[in-house]
Design brief:
This protein is of the alpha+beta class and 117 residues long. The chain is built from 2 helices and 7 strands, in the order αββββββαβ.
């Protein structure tokens, strides 16, 4: 008789967590800054394909290699409380960007801040 591998509750929970991880939206790398009530994101080190169902007030586009620690191309959708990093290849993103455009919201390209001495 072949030995059986014991399946514990702990290993089951770990498996579920690892399986669900790609479905959670990625968040902005560091605490976003606020300017006149609008969140200004710093950068996205990772991006997610997960659908953002919350209302969005602003959109930013992070180009590849713009930031040292955030080298990916990503769209950053924000509202007054949150910022989400979205993979540009997300199937739902194009439609969401069109709906934002109809509301007068267009994506601003993020640029690296240069500190003046």
């Amino acid at each position: 008789m072949e030995p059986r591998m014991a399946f514990t509750v702990r290993s089951g929970l770990i498996l579920i967590c690892l399986t669900m991880l790609p479905f959670f939206p990625a968040k902005v790398h560091s605490k976003p800054k606020s300017l006149r009530g609008q969140i200004i994101p710093t950068c996205c080190p990772t991006a997610s394909n997960a659908t953002i169902r919350q209302p969005v007030d602003a959109c930013f586009e992070q180009m590849e290699n713009t930031f040292t620690y955030c080298k990916i191309h990503a769209y950053i959708l924000t509202n007054k409380n949150n910022a989400w990093c979205v993979d540009p290849r997300a199937s739902w993103l194009e439609q969401r960007l069109k709906r934002l455009e109809k509301r007068g919201i267009s994506c601003q390209t993020l640029v690296k801040q240069v500190n003046a001495s």
